[in-house]
Amino acid sequence: MAKIITMTSGKGGVGKTTSSAAFGTGLALRGFKTCIIDFDVGLRNLDLIMGCERRVVFDFINVINGEARLSQALIKDKRVENLYILPTSQTRDKDALTQEGVGKILDELKKEFDYILCDSPAGIEKGALMALYWADHAIIVTNPEVSSVRDSDRILGVIQAKSRRAEQGLEPVKEHLLVTRYDPERVEKGEMLKVEDVLEILAIPLLGIIPESPAVLKASNVGMPVVLDDKSNAGQAYGDAVGRFLGETIEHRFIKPEKKGFLDRLLRRTA
Amino acid sequence: MSLLDIFRRSKPPTVAAQAKERLQIVLAHERSGRDSPDFLPALQQELLAVIKKYVNIDDDKVAVKLERESGCSMLEVNVELPAPAKRGPAGKAATVN
């Protein structure tokens, strides 16, 4: 049975699209047929992060409005088998999304895909509500920083009240915490919230910790999901998170400062 | 007690610890408000208006809270009345307007 996963956060700029691209690609790499949908109508960016911006002809909104077939709007990834992207409109606004319209397309996608990953826009307005309404799983992307943690708590409240599962009294949406931009050195200095603190406050299961890493910007510059950079710690951390999501037991890595050798310290080299 | 302990104790909490504490306080407040139904602010206003007909109280002296426990909800209304009137002109505070 196909599962719908929503990547959400409340706050903007914490790494939802980066995480959607990486997590969706990770699922496809493990052989699951995966579709990533951009719900950020009017501020389309998943296409850029996935490197398929020049291949967008039709979009999600066209399909909702019946102006194009789903198969015309889906973009097949050129690097990874089983991976598809459904871009959104750059010209319309969030009102173009309707609960029934989105539901109909998700139902159609469910027949073909194992996982449908909804990349939510920031905020708790219509776009974000549409992205989380049909969710079976929600991955909450949180930075170890006060405003992000507070907004994550808020969006958790919205999921528990306004998702389809909440409305219909079904088994609740499964929540997962993904801490991104984690800097173990600053944590050790007492400058940044520890992952344990964030966990204690939000009280949902931890899916992964993605370390702050130059690899993320490097990957987005060239339109490559960072999980494909398997030499980078961020890429590996996303790979681990996918494994945990699928039920594997994988120890969390990159949560302690890297031990630097004498020469490294002398030259102040950064990874 | 060693000298080291003295130094350790005088250390102020890290900024991360302050962040955690601030978050815990603000979220405890926001979570309690999240479950309260929409009518609470209106109820509070109307209660205030009724009480004001009889007792002259400040606008912020009525607190309305709804608490849910398994099986029942409890509506808690707290009204703080002005200090009992002393003899003389101050006593007017509690008279009906």
From TrEMBL, chain A:
Species the sequence originates in: Niveispirillum lacus
Record-level GO BP terms? division septum assembly; negative regulation of cell division
Write out the function statement from the record.
ATPase required for the correct placement of the division site. Cell division inhibitors MinC and MinD act in concert to form an inhibitor capable of blocking formation of the polar Z ring septums. Rapidly oscillates between the poles of the cell to destabilize FtsZ filaments that have formed before they mature into polar Z rings.
Task: List UniProt keywords, sorted A-Z.
Answer: ATP-binding, Cell cycle, Cell division, Nucleotide-binding, Septation
List the InterPro entries. Answer: AAA_dom (IPR025669), MinD (IPR010223), MinD_FleN (IPR025501), P-loop_NTPase (IPR027417), ParA/MinD_ATPase (IPR050625)
- Name of the molecule in the record: Septum site-determining protein MinD
Domain AAA stretches? 2-165
The UniProt subunit note reads as follows:
Interacts with MinC and FtsZ.
GO CC terms, sorted: cytoplasmic side of plasma membrane; cytosol
The UniProt entry, under Pfam families, shows: AAA_31
Q: Which GO terms describe its molecular function?
A: ATP binding; ATP hydrolysis activity
Give the domain of life: Bacteria
> Which residues does the record give as ATP binding sites?
11-18
Provide the family line.
Belongs to the ParA family. MinD subfamily.
TrEMBL record, chain B:
Q: Which organism is it from?
A: Niveispirillum lacus
Q: Give the matching InterPro entries.
A: MinE, MinE_sf
Q: Which family does it belong to?
A: Belongs to the MinE family.
What the entry lists under Pfam families is as follows: MinE (PF03776)
Keywords for the protein's UniProt record, in alphabetical order = Cell cycle, Cell division
Transmembrane segments annotated in the record for this chain = none
Any one GO MF annotation of this record: identical protein binding
Task: Indicate what this protein is called per its UniProt record.
Answer: Cell division topological specificity factor
Task: Name the job this protein performs.
Answer: Prevents the cell division inhibition by proteins MinC and MinD at internal division sites while permitting inhibition at polar sites. This ensures cell division at the proper site by restricting the formation of a division septum at the midpoint of the long axis of the cell.
Q: Which GO terms describe its biological process?
A: cell division; regulation of division septum assembly
